[in-house]
Structures are given as structure tokens and as C-alpha cells.
Amino acid sequence: MLFTTPQNKIQINALTKMFLKGYTEINLSAKINLKSKRQLLYSLYTLHSVFMPEVINEQFEFLRKYDLLKGAKMPNKLLPQDCMAKICKLADVDFKTLAFFNMQYILLIDAPHNATIFERLKKELLTDKIFVKAILLPISIFTPNSIEEFEAQESIPPTLKEWFSPYIQYKNTRLSSGITRDEEKYLLWLKEGKFDFVLQGTEKLLDTFPDEDGIIICNLAARSSMQGIEFAHQRQNLLNESLQIAQDAINRNSKKSYIFYYYRALSYIGLKDNANAKNSLSSSLKLNDEFAPAIELLKALNK
Q1: For residue 208, how far is the Cα from the chain centroid?
Q2: Percent of the chain whose predicted confidence (pLDDT) is above 70
């Protein structure tokens, strides 16, 4: 969640750039003319600049596309909620999904509040049709994981909690497989090779749900896949952290300790400690003698 504290500046910058880069590809209704498109996009651009003033100095592609670079005659700005209302009326579902995330900016700056427009936005944007797309965007890793996150923050507008609560419930709902929609997303991202997003997102999730085995496994899988990073000191830190995460899970006697022993072995291999890697794999197989990844890795180490 993007709260305006110094430690979250990096997240604010990353999220803002995701929005601004995405505006080039938006699909607005053919009913809206160029003048209105410029007004809408300029209003969004200036809204983001409140949180990240340095964006004013960057030449994003949509600024060129819609003649919004310095020197051009700028349109009048829409009020923030009016801007969101226009998006709901004229944009496709993908841009409406960005609008769902954009509302946090509006609510955080305590912009003029129109209760009628706010209720209309809730009906339009707080739906499964939007959430199913929202959860798969990289932006989603910056959203809150629980209502308690709001309660731990000071001076958070109640409308912000009201806005995000349905989405929090959606992403934390457990599927028939026993995992949450959020966990399902990270498993998909692992298959797609989005290891950095998985690592960032699961780190944040573990702050809220520290004992969730599925989340820990996703985190360790992402770390394991990133062991080939270029800088030696980063690689060393990643391996040591992975070793500690796996060991902590083993220490609490998780039912999936055989998996954590396997990831502990991978960390030891990365640290060039094959003896401890073999011991970890043997411990894994004592708990589950049919765990194929451990069987295959132990065979490879014994060659």
C-alpha cells in the first residue's frame, strides 16, 4: 500500500512510472474526441506529479502522443473524482483496472470528495470483473494485504479502507485447491519467469502472513531462480537469506518441511557447500521418500 512515508518512496516511484508508461496504450471510447482525451490524460499526469514531482521532467510516450510536452497549450484540469468518473464512462476494462488503483492517489491527497460520484465509482470498479485483472498486474504487489494494515497506519482516510476492503477480501479468498487467489497469482508468475515481482510481492505478504507455507515456498522458489544474478555480494545475501527462511520454516515443524529441506539444499549448493546440501536432501527424503526434486538433485550430487 502506498502511504506517504519516506520508506515507501521507492514504491511510490515504481507504481507511478507503471501508470505513466501504461497511459500510452490506453483504449478510450471512440466517443471521446482528442481534446477530451488530452484533458483526461493531463489531469491524470498532474495527479501523479503530486506524489512524484520528478515525473514532470520525464518525457513519457503518451505525452508525445497527445501533445502534452512543455511548450504545448495545456488543457484545463479535471477534479480528481470527475477524472475517474469520466474514465468509467469512456474507457475499456483494462484502463478501468488502472483507475481502480489510481483511486488511492485521490483518496490519499484528500481531494474534494463527492459522495455520489464515489458510490458510482464503487459500483463500477469494485467488481470481480475488475479484480480478476487487477490482481494480475505488477501494480498489485503494492496494495494492502489485510485490513489490519490500514489500522496500523496513522491518518489514513476511512474512504481508503472502504475502497480497498472488497479487493482485499477477493485476493485472500481461498480457492478449491486450498490456496488464495494471491498465491495462485504468484505460482503463475513463477511459471512466467517474473521472479522479481514474486520476490517483492511475497516478501510483503510474509510481513502479514509469516507462517503461510505456500507463500514461503513461492518466495524461496523465486530466490532460487534468481541465484544467477550478476553481482556476487547480492547473490551471497540472497543465498544466506534463503537459507535462513528455509531453516525458520523447518524449525516450526511445518508439514511441508520436506520442501523446505530441499530449498535449504539449493541454498547450500549456491554457497558451494555440497556436504550440507546432501544432508538436507537426505532429511527431505526421510520425511517424503517420493519427493522427486530431492531424489533427482541428490542423484546429481552423488555422481
Answers
A1: 14
A2: 85
